[in-house]
Structures are given as structure tokens and as C-alpha cells.
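Posting this for the archive.
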Amino acid sequence: MKKRIFLVMFVALLCGVMTLSAQKPFAGRIQFETTVEGSDDPNVQSALAGMTTEYLVMGNNQKIVISIQGFGQITIMNGDYNIIYHIIDISAFNMGKYYKEVKGDELKEQLSKRKIDYDYTQETKEICGYTCKKVIASETDLESDEVSKTIYWVTTDLNVGDNINFATAPGLKGFALSTETETSFGDETITMIHTATLVKADKKVKASAFYRPSDAVPYAEMPEEVKAQLGLGE
């Protein structure tokens, strides 16, 4: 009898631990590849050659790192504090690292210019072992009334925070493991497809990864010679 009671208590405890573990926010790395449909222009494909994209994800936070031949473009979206950092990393060329911060009233103003309606369909597909549902987003630019559409393939099985999409797709439920966006390239309308190729939990991902890099300086302090190298005007 005592052994049976002990066994029941052990199973109950184990189930409790598993439940707590399942509820723990996802922390890890997600790698994406970008492809293009609707264009045979070799310039389009060459622009993507050698490009890698990695997401660090934890709770409400994302850090997107795009690297092209030593040039780094980093976007940090900290949903815990509603702050976005846009970072240019050209330290590989000894030209430093520069950032722009968007938060508070500026962020509210940017978001107030957009209205997004989501159509959650019943169509699904599996990406990296996760079941994803097709969501069609219709975004209206409230200043021009122009409407653009984006298709998200969203999973709710990846345990992320409710505010994970605060900057890119406010109100979208779950995490998009694939995004399809139409855009103009010259005289063509092409579809950029951004799809996860690897989802890996990583305990080494910490909250500090989603803070502004300490070695970055504001855009405003970017030297003129660096602006000239990047082709940036005033």
C-alpha cells in the first residue's frame, strides 16, 4: 500500500514538473532562409547570395541578425520594455557599430499609422516539426489608404510571450515560422519568402542579448566617411 501511494505521488510530481517545464518560455535560436518567387532577374538572386538570418528568441523578445559578406544588420525588438533598436554593424571593416532607438511616443506614432486585420484560416503545414496555421494579414497605411498583404505561417506550439509581435505584427497570435510578402523590385512584383530551417532551444540565450549593445553609438554620431561608404545622406 505504501509503495502504491509513493508511486502515485511520484507520478503526480513528475506530471507537475512536466507541466511547469512546458510552460517555460521558449529561449533559443531560429535560422531562416530567404527565397524569391516571381522574378528571373539574376540580380535578385545575387542579392540573396551569402545572406544568413538568425533569430534569437526568448519570451517577448526577438533579436534578428542578418549578415551579408561581413555587413551586419541587427534588429532588437524588446517586448518586455516596448523598445526597438536598429543596428548597423560594420565592425568587421573597422568602421564601428551604430544604432537607432525607437520607443515611447515615437513607437506609438509609428504603430498608429498602421491598421492590420488578421484572417486566421484553417490551412496548416509543418515547418521544422511545428504545426503552423496560415494567417492572411491585410495592413492599411492610414495616411495613404494603401493596403498590403502578408501571409504568416504561425505556430502556437512554440511557447513565446503574448507581446512577441508588438513591433512587426501587433496582435498576431503565436510565432511566424514563415512569412510571404509581396514587394516591388524594379518593374516587377516579387514575393519574398522567409522560412525557418532550424528551431533549436538554447539555454545560453539570456535577457542581456536583447539590450542595446554597449559598443554601439547613435546614428547621429556616425562619421561622414562611414556615411559615404554606406551611401547614406543626411
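The mean pLDDT is 85. The first strand starts at residue 27 and ends at 37.
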